[in-house]
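Thread amino acids onto this structure.
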């Protein structure tokens, strides 16, 4: 049980605070920018090392079984060893965030890149087919077996749970920061993946059955090696791949060194008792003004920074508080049910201290650094990782690496693993200067802003905002403009229509059954519209081609509203995994030929419509595209930037989009395209995968039902009703945001084709 009430102080606090910032950085443009600068510094700090040997002999060597688990046959899930429960908690940040460095590798505009597509396939392989197949789900099983209760990794209490190691949190910070920007840092993400696969550490995917673990790593190895072949060793991107590779190796070594320190400390009762006092001394100050320990007042011991753990335990061991037999000591009476310190320590902590005191009574050595032998299978963990070249490590590890920045060690893990950065970046205005520390070879965690949102409220036109968002611009003003765009659309959308409204837009009171029934009714209504095709279509071939051009901005970012729902932190959450599965299938699930955006781009090329790449400014400024054609994609990209703030609206919007791909309109459209010898694959594909039998529309419905159940359990019926109105607003917002485009499409059609049609009519008349 974690007893932390407030976060730890000093060196370790900056790591834990930074982890909480980075894991929740998606909607914080300041944190996004700082994480980008930090990961760039971290990559640069790897130095000019020789090219790593990831091409020699292939990847994925021996996959060792976890030494802290009891492994059965290959198909059985390994069970955690009860004697290593503290190791299970120690490693939790990394195990619950497996693959975080790839979480944003495939975004709008870059997913057709072959490298990105294969890295996305690696990420999908690592995460498994659904939440129950994910590494995090398996590791949560371990935590449950060990009776270790941890909140979601995004929670503040998670970051500040002292059972979780600072070194694991730091390594996770690097992976999260790289993952946040992996869309722009795909070569570095590739290098990081290669190093992960080349590692022989047993700490990767430890809770998966051995056969499954080996299969996952083998499949990822094939995908990564295939990706690497696209790069030349003398190309511009090769050093970036090397930087990512070395970043992983250096920090894995740092992590294993931290593990060694932890293992030595945990085998010493004195070390464990030190940790207990260190965690609690903040709250002991002010209550012991008249108490002396050794030749100093107890308040002096508690106020000293860093805490003199060795001196404190020496003084306590020789004091009258611990003299005598167990149960008769003054310390026992003070902590007993009638003593003034009752409740300060829990039973587990008192048992540890009594064990230590028994050792003191037998004149055991008091050196905290001294410990019992560590099992050889765990000692050898740090030897299975191939080190980068010696000259690279010398560059990265200064002489004072691994020491605290002066003064005496307080016995904490962070003091053993961190050092002050010799040249910290300058503090900007509006920041809080912290005692920032860093694992050897990396820059420090950045300072945290005091708050404030900035004053940028200028309006940006839809073409400009589209260009900025498609290029993943992280500036505060861009993100502010994106949120203003979303708010504007939602403000014009009323969830409860007054008066007449089409059946598909009518509001209804939520229940899981009512939602499912309404969706079935809408589907039945749409399907009933379909009539046998009668040639010729009402629209001519050139008119269809013009329309296909106008839909390009929206369809070339298909699925983008869900592009940030697949973050590693939610890999074991059913609702988010349903949405991410929809997104993954929109992108072809790592198979480039099934990618919806590529299919549409191929259609454009077949029809002689040659548009610039969507990320190019020429695309956003293309005069052949209607101004209103950018309204919908702009909204989809903008709302995707806020996957938590607008989660209810995204659920409703997703349902509307998935239902729009079903029914008679799409079936008729496919028939008419075939008539004009236009490839209808983009239409027929949506008709098949959006189905209600188990396709995207069914997943969209289930995601809403699951989310609404969560709201009901947390906030009751009243809160559920309010959230349902937001979900329905998101559903109706698709109609709101496309209104101008529909009118522009009609006007554009009239302007471009009506004169010609009228001329043809007059020709026939006269």
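Threaded sequence (766 positions):
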């Amino acid at each position: 049980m974690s007893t932390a009430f407030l976060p730890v102080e000093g060196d370790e606090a900056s790591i834990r605070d930074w982890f909480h910032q980075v894991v929740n950085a998606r909607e914080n443009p300041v944190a996004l920018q700082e994480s980008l600068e930090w990961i760039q510094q971290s990559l640069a700090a790897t130095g000019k090392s020789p090219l790593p040997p990831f091409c020699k002999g292939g990847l994925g060597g021996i996959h060792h079984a976890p030494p802290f688990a009891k492994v059965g046959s290959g198909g059985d899930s390994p069970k955690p060893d009860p004697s290593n429960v503290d190791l299970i908690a120690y490693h939790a940040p990394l195990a619950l965030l497996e693959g975080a460095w790839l979480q944003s590798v495939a975004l709008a505009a870059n997913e057709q890149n072959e490298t990105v597509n294969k890295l996305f396939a690696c990420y999908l392989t690592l995460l498994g087919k659904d939440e129950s197949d994910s590494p995090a789900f398996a590791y949560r099983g371990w935590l449950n077996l060990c009776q270790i209760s941890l909140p979601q990794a995004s929670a503040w209490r998670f970051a500040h749970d002292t059972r979780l190691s600072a070194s694991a949190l730091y390594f996770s910070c690097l992976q999260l920061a790289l993952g946040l920007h992996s869309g722009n840092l795909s070569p570095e993400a590739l290098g990081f993946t290669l190093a992960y696969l080349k590692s022989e550490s047993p700490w990767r995917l430890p809770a998966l059955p051995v056969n499954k673990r080996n299969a996952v790593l083998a499949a990822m190895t094939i995908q990564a090696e295939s990706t690497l072949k696209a790069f030349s060793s003398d190309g511009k991107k090769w050093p970036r791949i090397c930087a990512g590779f070395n970043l992983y190796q250096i920090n894995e070594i740092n992590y294993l060194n931290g593990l060694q320190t932890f293992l030595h400390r945990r085998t010493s009762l004195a070390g464990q008792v030190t940790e207990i006092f260190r965690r609690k001394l903040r709250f002991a100050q002010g209550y012991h003004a008249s108490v002396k320990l050794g030749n100093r007042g107890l308040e002096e011991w508690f106020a000293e920074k860093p805490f003199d753990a060795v001196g404190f335990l020496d003084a306590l061991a020789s004091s009258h508080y611990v003299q005598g037999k167990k149960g008769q000591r003054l310390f026992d009476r003070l902590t007993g049910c009638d003593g003034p310190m009752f409740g300060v320590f829990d039973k587990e902590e008192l048992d540890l201290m009594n064990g230590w005191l028994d050792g003191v009574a037998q004149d055991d050595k008091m050196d905290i650094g001294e410990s019992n032998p560590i099992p050889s299978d765990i000692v050898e963990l740090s030897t299975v990782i191939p080190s980068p070249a010696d000259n690279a490590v010398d560059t990265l590890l200064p002489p004072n690496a691994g020491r605290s920045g002066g003064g005496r060690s307080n016995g904490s893990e962070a003091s053993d693993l961190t050092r002050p950065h010799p040249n910290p970046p300058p503090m900007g205005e509006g920041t809080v200067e912290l005692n920032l520390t860093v694992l050897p070879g990396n820059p420090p965690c950045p300072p945290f802003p005091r708050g404030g949102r900035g004053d940028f409220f200028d309006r940006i036109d839809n073409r400009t905002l589209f260009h900025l968002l498609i290029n993943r611009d992280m500036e505060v003003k861009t993100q502010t403009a994106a949120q203003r765009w979303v708010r504007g659309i939602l403000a014009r959308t009323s969830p409860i229509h007054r008066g007449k409204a089409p059946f598909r837009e009518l509001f209804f009171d939520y229940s899981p059954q009512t939602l499912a029934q309404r969706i079935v009714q809408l589907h039945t209504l749409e399907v009933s519209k379909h009539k046998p095709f009668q040639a010729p279509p009402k629209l001519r071939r050139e008119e269809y081609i013009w329309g296909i051009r106008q839909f390009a901005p929206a369809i070339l970012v298909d699925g983008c509203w869900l592009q940030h729902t697949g973050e590693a932190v939610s890999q074991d959450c059913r609702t988010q995994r349903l949405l991410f599965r929809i997104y993954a299938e929109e992108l072809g699930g790592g198979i480039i030929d099934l990618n919806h955006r590529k299919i549409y781009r191929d259609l454009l090329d077949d029809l002689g419509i040659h548009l610039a790449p969507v990320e190019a400014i020429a695309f956003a400024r293309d005069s052949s595209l209607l101004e209103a054609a950018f309204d919908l994609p702009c909204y989809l990209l903008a709302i995707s930037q806020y996957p938590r703030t607008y989660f209810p609206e995204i659920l409703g919007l997703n349902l509307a989009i998935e239902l729009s791909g079903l029914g008679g309109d799409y079936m008729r459209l496919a028939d008419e395209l075939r008539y004009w010898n236009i490839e209808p694959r983009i239409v027929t594909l949506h008709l098949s995968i959006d189905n209600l039998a188990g396709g995207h529309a069914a997943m969209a419905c289930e995601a809403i039902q699951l989310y609404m159940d969560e709201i009901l359990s947390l906030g009751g019926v009243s809160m559920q009703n309010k959230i349902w109105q937001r979900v329905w607003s998101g559903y109706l917002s698709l109609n709101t945001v496309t209104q101008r485009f529909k009118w522009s499409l009609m006007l554009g059609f009239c302007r471009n084709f009506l004169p010609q049609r009228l001329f043809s009519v007059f020709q026939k008349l006269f």
